[in-house]
Design goal:
This protein is α+β, with helices and mostly antiparallel strands and about 325 residues long. It contains 7 helices and 18 strands. The strands form 5 sheets. Strands 6, 7, 8, 11, 12 and 13 form a 6-stranded antiparallel sheet that branches. The chain has a 4-stranded mixed sheet with strand order 1-2-5-3, with helices on one face. Strands 14-17-16-15 form a 4-stranded antiparallel sheet. It folds into 3 domains: about 1-85, Uridine Diphospho-n-acetylenolpyruvylglucosamine Reductase, domain 2, CATH 3.30.43; about 90-225, Uridine Diphospho-n-acetylenolpyruvylglucosamine Reductase, domain 3 (2-Layer Sandwich), CATH 3.30.465; about 235-315, Uridine Diphospho-n-acetylenolpyruvylglucosamine Reductase, domain 1, CATH 3.90.78.10.
Length: about 325
């Protein structure tokens, strides 16, 4: 299948069989993918469209991988193909915005595999504000749009202008742009979830601002993440969503129950933050999953609250 698609749509590609997914996850855990591949270069859209369509027709499962954040890959690994978008990166286009939600400025369009931190840096260098809330956040632009990434009172939908997609739900893939329907986005949710779509790129309305002010906000956000211990050990950041109906952040609920510091193998609920689970060294996905399930069960028993994981559980569980 891969060779056929390459002959029809030539593309630089890295293909590995039995690739450990620990190398492609911020948790640094996870078993092997049957086939991991990373297309690169200008042939990326045509090749991936052909591959996704062929895989759909032959009922070969495909897992689309962004930056490897917010996922927990099973120790048994992933069957089928893992399509890594990390080779499709960079600023695709800059153009005047006209009058957008952020006022006068520019529209920047990033390819989906671009890291969020790189996108923020590019925008800052151009004196454009609006993406600072993503500074220091792991993951890719495609993943950020897919999950409507949110922090510091801002979310991707606030600045999203449009999204370029490949729809591979039919026999003939369709490449098109979608303007956001703001009502279709919600907390950590986008309308792209649960559909046969590959996000190719996303464009954002950004406002002109002083670069020093932009970088000061970026620095403050990165420092806040560092102070909260996001970078001390491999992790996926927040494990559970916050729910305003609970009256307090999920991390505080878990902390108040005395669960911080709980271990399972090489995994631990962070002693400094109840909503972060870390890999202290050699943790398996099962270790991490055990702590997730334990935290959810004990919160349910003590408060009646149903915690909802932010993480996606990927692979053969």
């Amino acid at each position: 299948m891969i060779e056929f698609c390459l002959k029809k749509y030539p593309c630089d590609i890295d293909v590995r069989y039995g690739e450990p997914m620990a190398a492609h996850s911020t948790f640094q855990t996870g078993g092997p993918a049957d086939c991991w591949l990373r297309p690169q270069g200008e042939g990326f859209p045509e090749f991936t469209a052909a591959l996704l369509t062929a895989a759909q027709a032959e009922q070969v499962p495909v897992c689309i991988l962004g930056g490897g954040a917010n996922i927990l890959v099973a120790d048994a690994g992933i069957r089928g193909i893992v399509l890594d978008t990390g080779g499709w990166t960079g600023l695709k286009e800059q153009r005047p915005s006209g009058q957008g939600p952020a006022g006068q400025g520019s529209v920047l369009e990033f390819r989906a595999g671009t890291s969020m931190d790189d996108a923020v840096e590019i925008a800052a260098g151009l004196g454009l504000s609006g993406l600072e809330f993503l500074a220091g956040m792991p993951g890719s632009i495609g993943g950020a749009v897919w999950m409507n990434a949110r922090c510091y009172g801002c979310e991707v939908a606030d600045v999203l202008r449009d999204t370029e997609l490949i729809d591979y739900s039919q026999a003939m893939p369709k490449r098109h742009r979608v303007a956001p329907d703001r009502s279709a986005f919600a907390y950590k949710y986008s309308p792209f979830q649960g559909r046969c779509n590959l996000i190719l790129s996303a464009s954002f309305f950004l406002e002109s601002a002083d670069e020093n002010d932009i970088r000061a906000r970026m620095h403050a956000n990165r420092r806040d993440r560092e102070d909260k211990g996001h970078y001390r050990f491999p992790s996926a950041g927040s494990v559970f969503k916050n729910n305003p109906a609970f009256g307090m952040p999920t991390g505080k609920i878990i902390d108040d129950l005395g669960l911080c510091g709980m271990y399972s193998g090489g995994a631990q609920i962070a002693p400094w933050h109840g909503n972060i689970i870390v890999n202290t060294g050699g943790a398996t996905a099962a270790d991490i999953r055990f702590l997730i399930d334990q935290a959810a069960a004990q919160v349910k028993a003590a408060t009646g609250f149903e915690l909802e994981p932010e993480l996606l559980f990927i692979g053969k569980w």
